[in-house]
Amino acid sequence: METGVLSGQVAVITGASGGLGAHFARVLAKAGASVALTARRLDMVEAVAGEIAGAGGRAMALKLDVADAQAIGPAFDEIEAGLGPISILVNNAGVGGEGLALDLTVEDWDRTFDVNVRGVFFSAQQAAKRMIASGVAEAGAARIVNIASIASHTVLPGLSAYCASKASVAMLTKSLAREWARRGIAVNAICPGYIETDINSDWFKTEGGLKQMKGFPRRRLMGAEDLDASLLMLCGPATRAITGTVITIDDGQSLPGGG
Ligand SMILES: NC(=O)c1ccc[n+]([C@@H]2O[C@H](COP(=O)([O-])OP(=O)(O)OC[C@H]3O[C@@H](n4cnc5c(N)ncnc54)[C@H](OP(=O)(O)O)[C@@H]3O)[C@@H](O)[C@H]2O)c1
After folding, report:
1. Which of 15, 54, 168, 169 has the highest local Cβ count within 10 Å?
2. Residue 115 · residue 97 · CB < 8 Å
């Protein structure tokens, strides 16, 4: 695992205890990056980190709740002490935030924004400070990849808070890319379509979920591996001139007139 396109890079993945985050950690490790897996469920990030290390990768696991803004900096310090200067951040941690607008509580709204927006912003800020301080940014290797969603630009019915939070992630991506362009940090986002994970598996077992899937142009869900090529591109040297880009990879799910 040492000799890949990301050999020598140190990648932090938030929300890496399962779903897409665990997958991204495996993909980046396979490409040669040392990976730091973070999430609230420490036993689960430890299990994935152990699996990566068993396959010859370099991985560490840390407990981190990204809604706790004060905890992000110390966690990133611990990662740098263990693996070296952070060069890649995959801002993946996210919650679904479902709930009809008429029923949504202040707590529901805040929970969605605390994780999906505030967590993304302060993780990016803490990573960027370290990328600049260590010289990684000046060397042109600093990459931040935000995991947004087709909800950034497409209405998903019954998910107003989630859609608003993911639209914020897309705009933050561009704002941070602009602000940090001259600093040497590339900030980009991926907007995936529906991929079955814990965030939506209950929904896709319901009649409504199956009906929604049959309405997609290709009548299927995507696989996490469909994001691999874009993730690797946005984390690697090919992204020298790509910043502020929001890439939709959705198997055509957000195209109009599906079904
Ligand atoms: N699956 C899809 O169809 C899809 C489509 C578009 C975008 N996305 C986005 O992709 C990302 C990953 O989603 P997923 O499908 O893999 O969902 P998932 O299986 O539910 O995983 C979500 C991850 O986020 C972590 N997380 C939740 N709250 C957190 C917090 N406060 N602090 C740190 N970590 C937290 C969870 O870990 P802990 O519970 O251990 O903290 C878990 O590892 C999310 O941003 C989601 O919005 C998913």
Report:
1. 15
2. no
Catalytic residues: 162
Tokens standing for residue 99: 């709930």
3 state SS of 129: helix
pLDDT tens digits along 49-97: 999 999 999 999 999 999 999 999 999 999 999 999 999 999 999 999 8
Reported as type and span, the H/E element at residue 125 is helix 119-134
From CA 56, how far away is CA 92, in angstroms rounded? 24
Domains of the chain: 10-249 (3.40.50.720)
E runs forming strands in 214-259? 246-249
* 157: pLDDT strictly greater than 70: yes
Which of 186, 17, 208 shows the shortest CA–CA distance to 95?
Answer: 17
Question: Residue of the nearest CA to atom 30 in ligand 1?
Answer: 65
User: Would you state the structure tokens that stand for residue 257, as one six-digit string?
Assistant: 């007139």
User: Which ligand 1 atom sits closest to the C-alpha of 18?
Assistant: 43
Average pLDDT, the chain: 96
| C-alpha to C-alpha distances, 201 to 153, 195, 222, nearest whole angstrom | 22, 9, 13
